[in-house]
Amino acid sequence: MIVLGIETTCDETAASVVREGKEILSNVISSQIELHQAFGGVVPELASRQHAHVILPIIDQALSEANMTINDIDLISVAKGPGLIGPLMIGINAAKTLSWSTGIPFIGVNHIEAHLYAALMSHQHEVPFPSLGVVLSGGHTSLVLMNGVGNYHVIGQTIDDAVGEAFDKVAKILGLPYPGGPEIERLAKMGDPSRYSFKSGRVKNRHYDFSFSGLKTAVLYAAKGAQSKYDSKLLIQEEDKPHIAASFQQAALTDIVKKSVKAAHDYHCSSVVLGGGVTCNQRLREMFVENEPKIRYYWPSKGLSLDNAAMIAGLGYEKYRMTQKGDPLDLEASTSLKF
User: Looking at domain 129-298, what is its CATH homologous superfamily?
Assistant: First the structure.
């Protein structure tokens, strides 16, 4: 089965052609980073307009790079949520139109579930279940007990900011460009992680949940003074920025690693499957192995950590294989979806 995947949940317009759920024949991504950098984050209306402008050329490019035409496609898979409603509707309507005009079935999949599938499709051998799924992205931070593809139980999640969002906000506090994750990681390599005693929040009686809002506020006050706001003037010197970045990163990643390892042990998981843009952070990968080297970690391969359509196509293949049916043309986009 050859699947065309379409991804438009936020600020990347992506299309991919995947065979049998794992063999990536093309994976095309059009980024909007330059468009949104001036605003320090994604502007939904601008994102929607750009998706509408480039989606058909991106689909054509994905088919061309795979040496395919639309007539070679057996299934169209599209991210139905969660995400920004405008961008989601662009992708879903493109998938519906292609499906209606060609007779090819289409299926909507959960973008966050696809982030975990990205790690599964990055490895040739089968991942043992049960596994602990760890979603670390700009919009989501979750711990998920995975008993198989499509069989999940959420055991922990953030109650406020996602970890990727916290990285972006801390970068904005320090005057770093968007997206903030790579900038914080780069700066942290030059800093002392013990210089500031930052700590992630604790959620009472919920041992696997996360809270990064207080950590972000602690960084704000350290950099700009007590009771300051985002637009307040920086009080620290330029040479202090690496130490704040390193201390923040250490606090955030330590919380993730410790709770993930504890959950893996408590739920008898010998493997951890990770997905989402924050998995690009090399210090995170080092800390997992340093903390618990006996667990096997499944990371998404290069190109599959950030938002992409290959993971959408791969997961769509698995969903269709299990159900043997697509979705109706009245499928709607959803800004919030649970596992």
Answer: ATPase, nucleotide binding domain (3.30.420.40)
